[in-house]
Amino acid sequence: MFKKILIANRGEIACRVIKSARKMGIKTVAVYSDADAHALHVKMADEAVHIGPPPANQSYIVIDKIMDAIRQTGAEAVHPGYGFLSENMKFAEALEQAGVVFIGPPSPAIEAMGDKITSKKLAQEAGVSTVPGYMGLIKDADDAVKISGEIGYPVMIKASAGGGGKGMRIAWSEAEVKEGFESSKNEAANSFGDDRIFIEKFVTQPRHIEIQVLADKHGNCVYLHERECSIQRRNQKVIEEAPSPFLDAATRKAMGEQACALAKAVGYTSAGTVEFIVDGDRNFYFLEMNTRLQVEHPVTELITGVDLVEQMIRVAAGEPLPFKQEDLKINGWAMESRLYAEDPYRNFLPSIGRLTRYRPPVEGHTTRGGIVRNDTGVYEGGEISMFYDPMIAKLCTWGETRADAIEEMRLALDTFEVEGIGHNLPFCSAVMDHPKFCAGEMTTAFIAEEYPDGFEGVTLEHATLKRVAAAAAAMNRVSEIRLSRISGTLGNHERHVGENWVVTLQGEEFVVKVSADKAGSTVKFADGTHLRVESDWVPGHSLAELLIESQPLVLKVGLIPSGFRLRVRGADLKVHVRTPRAAELAKLMPEKLPPDTSKFLLCPMPGLIVKINVAEGDEVQEGQALATVEAMKMENILRAERKGVVKKINAAPGASLKVDEIIMEFE
Asked: What are the catalytic residues?
């Protein structure tokens, strides 16, 4: 077995590999750019080597710099993680020539299956059903338009060397093909150093289901069942689960056997994933094979009990797989929510900054019989950089049934505290409560169909609001008692805490009476109903874990005048708890209106201005592209919301802007 391995990656996947290596008694070497000098993976590894400036094309994907780090440290093997150089054949060849083991497939398999164009041709030759498309090289945007017309709209424009949604666009018209082709090429070049593009038919109403395979160097290949990855935004997965709620045993077996046959046909070893599009009749079509570890591998580990990273290392060291296909049973259900540094209230645009608070839920077995796991690469006080992928953690839960796993995820998301950046935890919570998701009735169009105008937060149902109101009333009583004791030490008598309160939240008003005892509080409502509240929450704690009628409720707590800011199940609530007289007076207060920014194009995120599409004096139409901003390896095109005339342009290409900085003004 290896004594020392280098991890040619960063963030949560580098930390994940270090954990398995440490468990196996293997020393680890981290590499880092200037931006990652204080990153968690650098702190966790036994050694760390600096490899250059923040941009990945000057550090993490420069093969010579990784090879230098290997020579400096004497690492015997390299785990590439995912992204960066994980599917780069030249990197695998460079390692082979240097006598260093690549913890992944052999370079011919990477060449055969890592390139999306080549892999689809090979799949077709092997008789595998594939999605219609054009696999040849595309010269320019006009050529892309011609090919798209022959295939038939809508089409998917994809980077040949792509992954993680980078370099991928859906186009429904010639104009969208031209625009998408250029953006895809730029993103592909910046992320992978390869700007080749191909086009295929976009299958509407599909489900994205993938098969995890694992093969050794002794001719053994198994599949570890499937993952459902249909909840996607901008072609990037957000929620994954294993197994799929849609497949039956026969389809699962057929997909698994086909995936293994494909892997064997190209001499594949190590962990890999074969991705399929599955239609409503459970017909499946090969999409691509990812010749690396997948981001969502933890859900497979949770339902099979197999440490995929450990098995990759053992396979690379020449060991045979310790199990056969019949040994791999499905145990329970697992969910994964990807925590992204992006603001769901700003159309999920990237968010960067310092994590002023980062408190994941406690990992391990829960009191309800489930499991919580959080794969992360950040820590409280750390910086989220604009140079890399916005994913900062993968929160996973396991339960005996799908409903159990979802409930564990709901509570884990409510418990997860993140401050200082925009993040998508509220959106993940909203998905967990969505009827279609709960019923397992989703396609890759789920987010586009269910949130066509973007995510604007969650509106809680009346019954849930009532539970939150009861919690707020009980918490307010605790706060008031503390205040009365403080004022009592300063004055001559202790201030009396009343029982009657008015709780307002989400436009609803609850008149309540709070009766307390040593074990908790009973909150009685005006309609005669009551709720029992039990909690050990004390003022100043940012998390309140309560029982409402013996059912758990977790609230993120902040203070506002006359109440609390409470976040739960994707809702962000201003909850006012007032005396009846104060509530009466509050209704007379005028509402403060937000400033009018309709005449400005504001930068929606911290980023780099790549392109300005208009000039001063130009008349623009609704939907017209105005500027392109790049952040976290993604290009974002900003469009006109209405017809107007450009009065002044405040930013030029190459400028780095903060959130809400003015790019241009309109008359």
From this structure: 288
